[in-house]
Give the backbone structure.
Amino acid sequence: MLDFKNIIAEEVKKVTNIDNIYEYIEVPANKEMGDYSLPCFKLARELKKAPQMIANDIKEQLKFEEELISKIEVVNGYLNFYINPLALVKTVLEEFSNKQSEFGNSNIGENKTIVIDYSSPNIAKPFHIGHLRSTVIGNALYNIYKFLGYNVIGINHLGDYGTQFGKLIEGYKRWGKEYDIESNPIDELTKIYVRINNLCKEDESVLEECRNNFKKLEDGDEYCTELWQEFRKLSLKEFQRVYDLLDVHFDSLNGEAFYSDKMAEIVSILEKTGKLVESEGARVINLDEYDMPPCIIEKTNGSTTYATRDLAAIMYRARTYNFDKAIYVTSYEQILHFKQVFETAKLLGLDKKYTDGLIHVPFGMVQLKTGKMSTREGNIIKLEDLLNEAISRVSKVIEEKNSDLENKEEVAKKVGIGAVIFNDLYNSRIKDEIFDWDTMLNFNGETGPYLQYMYVRTNSILEKVNKIPNINTINVELLQDNASVNLIKEMYNFGSIVKQAADKNEPYIISRYLINIAQLFSSFYNENKIICDDKKMQEARIYLTYCTNILLKNGAGLLGIKMPDKM
Ligand code: ARG
């Protein structure tokens, strides 16, 4: 595809001899000001002239082919460039024809590896709505980086280790038979956990037993290990139901326990730095100079911590994957934790490449608009229930409005899950998210179902003609009306939008973009008759519909949203 910004930059460079001119060229917010604009006041110091003069000078010397740049204007010291719509239409359509669903992809990630740590629920605890965000954001980032050519490793850093397992084992020892763990593992294990915690509060000696159990687990005791494995296996089976609903996959399920034999090395490296110090019986890395509380490496009883396991994981991932970036997706409650861990990681003697590549990607909390949602647990909202509720709400709508629809269940699943995912990815991730069924399931709002609905519309148009015309037969001159050009201009940006989303680790940039595409298609559709008597016209418009169809499906796919064929 023609890179117009680069074409402009190269020409302006010849005239001005400024090498990094590309970086100065902007896309004006106001469409009246052209497609690209050069703010000449930024060159004033270097060229020692007034902006208006610079602009005029450059303009006079520039030579563009009329077929590429149709107009250049000087306005208030800005040099505004207007792309010839024909060139734009042609290059975008051709690119679609060549690349199809690869439209917008790139190879900027070639030979680079990104490790993404996401989802990471805790064994024997409910997979709750907070983990939904981590799962959905992490999965979107996974797809986005893949699309940009990176080698991506998705890791579910399961919370499968820690003192709570000592408690669970104790509870199970005492009352295991009373609970039906097989058929309903997480609920039942949670009950045991609550019960043993209460007992610990009353009876110090029980707490001591629990601590012992964890110590035994760390030392490889057979009974404790077996039980722990069983808890892990059953929990994973339950989590898997959620992953299946979301269609999320991981390359590695190495959770915290995986690092149990890899922490001694970390402790010994830290010891050698002389910075591992005693503090109230624990061993810590002092982070005073960074205005942070110390990073606790070993607790008073000698057991390791969440942070130590994260340090061991950094070491392991650097060695195993040789990562360029390691991304962690969790709620903002863990900002301090990762700051401490990343700072401490600099003491591990790793190449700077690795410690520079550590990135925490925090997100905001989920708030319920009504404060209530149907759930079995009272105030803990289980993700599986929530996803199933989304599906059943959509099913109801389908029954009311379109009960003859084929594959009703499949569609309800795609729309229900798509709505939840889209809602999760619609705002900058750090913002708290409002969870409200009516908003996210609104087919006319800026929602997942709206995107899907517009996609389905393109599908049904394409179905009517039943044949996609060959690109060589399309007369691009027939797509010069405003609505068509506006849609095509926005399509042109897809590649750079995906790169921006990756740069900022912000999938919402793609969500908003897709809504924009859907709305622009809607205007195109409302203003133009697609199926019409003029067959040449019809072919051109069909082709644009076809491009929109591909783009919507593929863009939504990056977010983890599936498109139904009909709805
Ligand atoms: N299990 C943790 C939680 O539920 C999240 C783990 C995030 N990843 C990590 N490497 N610390 O809060």
